[in-house]
Amino acid sequence: MRRRLLAALLALGCCAAFAENAPPEGFARVKIGEAPARFVLWRPAPTGRTLLVLAEDEPATAVRSRADLLQIALGRKMSVIFLGPAENLASAPARENLRKILGSLKPAKIVGAGLGKGADLLRDLAFEAGPKIFDALLLADAGAAPPGVKGGPFVVELYGSDAYWRAAPLAPNMAPAPDRRRFFLAGATLARSGEANCAAPVNLRDIEPARRALLVALDDFLHGGPPPPASREAELAPAKSLVWPKIPGLPAPPAGGRMVPKIDVDGNETSGLRLPDQALPIASFTGWNAAKDKAPGACVAGAAIPFAPSRAAREASGDPRQSLLERYGARSYFVAALRSVADRLVKERLLLPQDADAYVAAGKLAPF
Predict the structure, then answer these.
(1) What is the b/e burial string over 333-358, where b = at least 16 CB atoms within 10 angstroms of the residue's CB?
(2) Domain-embedded: residue 295
(3) What is the pLDDT of residues 69-114, one digit of tens each?
(4) Residues 261-285 pLDDT 10s
């Protein structure tokens, strides 16, 4: 298998081993293609049964410890190709070159994963005319995928609160299909920019725990396991029908007639996939913010307004929301409740055990 892989890549006139950014132990690093359509392959020995195609740049050695999809790929001995910026594949020849490369790496199962523009690129590649490239796609904050086609990839889509609150909202909920899953990540923002120019504290909740669990579910499914968990969509209501609490420092929601996720008395969203830090929040999380001024790089982000630590503190600030002590009573109860929510999500295959432990550990540091 390894000899056939190298022969196929060399036949494309593209391979050279590199050492300046060495991959983890047990992986070889191979550069494929010519600029601008140049990609990097990390190949384990023996060759992985799954190839993960990441629509992003190869990470520097110093940042490889972050808890993202790559960590899962390395732990599962997947081969990984980094495509770099979506602009690298703007031309038809570049895309055709990538098709040939991915075709040469069969019979590995091929999963494409991307966020925003990278997700849109993978979606377009998957559904363009031609032979099937991907066995599955894990798309975050992408435009709506075309209707499923027989023999097409299994598609898992993730989207956040900002999908509904941005100037040009993403497509609304789609009809369910056997080869599609859609997960609304309640209270999360998947696209952020200009955070320094935001008027309210920025919503920095992490979506990676959900992506990591769903990558594992997809990989298991492609190799004979059960299908990924059922979709969890947003429950929507007209934006003008929502009653927002008068939270100090919270910008007014964007105007306009739109359908948006339903909220509770704190302004937190109540449907979709509610990760532990949304199910047991310590703040109100929104999918919008506001810019301090009209300077370049206007705020594109959500807001996160923390709950007061005590009743006295919230009354002093005029905050109508319950304080941490009023809603949870004690840190020990809060941590135990986090464990219960996290363990349930692990059983539902929507969270990995190590990420469940991380939520619980973070809960022990909550500002009671």
Answers:
(1) ebbebbbebbeebbeebbbbeebbeb
(2) no
(3) 999 999 999 999 999 888 888 888 888 888 888 888 877 899 999 9
(4) 999 999 999 999 999 999 999 999 9
Closest-CA residue to 208 (of 59, 67, 302, 75): 67
Task: Please give the structure tokens belonging to residue 85.
Answer: 């910026």
Q: Does residue 235 fall inside a structural domain?
A: no
**Element (DSSP H or E) covering residue 222:** helix 208-222
| Total structural domains within the chain | 1
Of 181, 168, 170, which Cα lies nearest the Cα of 214? Answer: 181
pLDDT band at 345 (very low <50, low <70, confident <90, very high): very high
Tell me whether residue 19 is in a domain. Answer: yes
Closest CA to 228 of 286, 180, 192: 180
Angle separating helix axes 92-104 and 117-127, nearest 10 degrees? 70
39 phi and psi angles, rounded to 5 deg: -125, 165
Sequence-separated (6 or more) residues with CB below 8 Å from residue 292: 197, 198, 199, 299
Alpha-carbon distance 228 to 129, whole Å? 27
CA 317, CA 295: separation in Å to the nearest integer?
A: 30
Q: Which bin fits 320, alpha (ψ -120 to 50), beta or left (φ > 0)?
A: alpha
CB atoms within 10 A of CB 183: 25
Range of the domain at 157: 2-222
* Peptide linkage before 229 cis (omega within 30 of 0): no
In a domain, 98, yes or no: yes
Query: What would the pLDDT profile of 117-165 be if each residue is shown by its tens digit?
Result: 999 999 988 888 777 889 999 999 988 666 656 678 999 999 999 999 9
Q: How confident is the model at residue 7 (pLDDT cuts 50, 70, 90)?
A: very low
Rounded to an integer, what distance in angstroms lies between the CA atom of residue 300 and that of residue 348? 32
- Give Cβ neighbours of residue 12 (< 8 Å, ≥ 6 apart): 32, 33, 97, 100, 101, 104
**What is the CATH classification number for the domain harbouring 53?**
3.40.50.1820
Cα–Cα dist 286/303, whole Å? 5
Helix (H, G, I), strand (E, B) or coil at 82: strand
